[in-house]
Structures are given as C-alpha cells and as structure tokens.
Amino acid sequence: MDILSYGFMQNAIIASILASVACGIIGSLVVVNRIVFISGGIAHTAYGGIGLAFFLGISPLLGAGVFAVVAALIMAYITKNDKHRSDTVIGAMWAFGMAIGIILIDLTPGYNVDLMSYLFGSILSVPMADLIYMGVLDGVIVLYILKWYRQIHAVSFDADFATSMGVKSDLIYASMLVMSALAVVLLIRVVGLILIISMLTIPPYIAERRSNSLKGMMIYSTIFSLIFSLVGLFMSYTFNLTSGASIISVSAVCFFLSIIYDRVKSIK
C-alpha cells in the first residue's frame, strides 16, 4: 500500500478511472453498432495529430483530439454514402495518419519524443495537465449519453425504425464516431494507440454477455475496464512492465476465461 503515497501512482489510478468511464460508455456503443474497424481507423489516424502537435509545439492530446474528430467525421460520411468502398478508404486513412505522424515527428526540431508511450501507453507517467484534459473529455461523453440516450439506443438497435420515428439517425451515427474519437484520445496515455481497440472492445464484450440492456452493459463495462486497468497497473509497477501491454494482457486473459466459462455453463 506504500506505493499509493507516490504522486505518479495516484495520477495513474485517476487516469484509470477516467479511462474506464470512456471505455464503458463508448466501448459499448462501438460493440453494439459494430464499428470496431472504424474505431481502429480513428485511433491510428490520430497518430498524425500527435506528430502535428509535436511539430507545432502544442499538447499532443489536443493534436490527437482534433485529428481524431476530423477523421471520425470523414469516416461517418464515407461509411454512410459509399459503403462498398468504406473499408478501403478507412484503411488508407489509417495508413496516412500513422505515416504523416512519423514524418512530422522526424521533421520536428530537437526531436526527442518517446514514441513508445503513445503507441503502447505510459499510465505511470500521466501528468496532471493530461488528467484535466481527460476529465473534460469524460464530462463531454457523460453529458452526451445522458442527453441523447434514447435516440442513441434506438439507432444502435434499429436505425431504420429510429429514422421512421423521426430520429436523425445519420447525425446520431456521426456523433457516436466523434465520441469514439474522444475516447481514443482518453486512452492514448493509458494503453497507447496500438492497443486502444482492445480496451474499447474486450470489457464491453464481457459486459454484453452479463447484462440485458445497453445501460447495464455500459455500467458493467465500466467496472470491468476499471478492474483490468488497476490490476494491469499494479502488475506493470511490480514487475517493471509496459503499462499498456499489462492492462491489455489482463483484459485478454479475462476475455478468454469468460468465453470458457460461458461454454461450460451452456453445456451444463
């Protein structure tokens, strides 16, 4: 328990809590709406924003946030208007974001960037400024779900019926992708861009099997995300491991155990 007296560990725990809220809410929407590949594209495209931020000398999370939101809006338009080519365009944006990010970092004067912390996470080194930024993003996500929960629920389970009832399905769909972009930014420092998609999908998948409503799924997913994050965090500190990889490893083990449990239970 002595490690809880360290400031960096306190920041890491707060970051875990903030990230878990985003995972629980937005991850559930990602799984239910089957937009995992799109969310992965947004996450990797956001790397271009990190490169641009270092090149301009601004906050990396701010740069990633702007880049991710723009990418989300483009992907929302493409997936709604050209579904047959959407996977190709998303793949191209995915590659472009990673490439332009690396090029801009290479061009940054006095290059001295720890790329590993953005690719695989570094929750033990999250500064207070990032926590404030994460808290603001969490607030936006929570207000979003409270304000438009009924419309989001309708679009998530039957978009055509929701449209016939007067819900602006396209607008709700685009807003979900924008919220996914904000969740990506929240998770950059926790698990990194490479592993974000796992954190957005594993806890919600486990939660979906144990709840009978979208609201319940979000709550369970938040709890699972927090447990995985804290266990992975302490593993990372204790054994001197990469924090993001530790958190995802814990999540993956629990994912496979849950599948085995469900299979055994169904046989009985």
SSE layout and pairing:
Elements: H1 7-32, H2 36-56, H3 60-81, H4 86-107, H5 115-119, H6 128-157, H7 159-164, H8 169-191, H9 196-208, H10 214-239, H11 243-267
Task: Write a structural description.
The chain is mostly helical and 268 residues long. It has a single domain (2-267), classed as ABC transporter involved in vitamin B12 uptake, BtuC, CATH 1.10.3470.10. It is built from eleven helices and no strands. The radius of gyration is 18 Å and the shape is globular. The termini are far apart. The model has no long low-confidence stretch (mean pLDDT 88).
CATH fold-level name: ABC transporter involved in vitamin B12 uptake, BtuC
Number of domains: 1
Rough outline: globular
The CATH level-2 architecture is identified as Orthogonal Bundle
Provide the CATH top-level class.
Answer: Mainly Alpha
Fraction of helical residues: over 70%
Number of strands: 0
Beta-strand proportion: under 5%
Count of helices? 11
Radius of gyration: 18 Å
Mind summarizing the main beta sheet? none
Structural class: mainly alpha
End-to-end separation: 41 Å
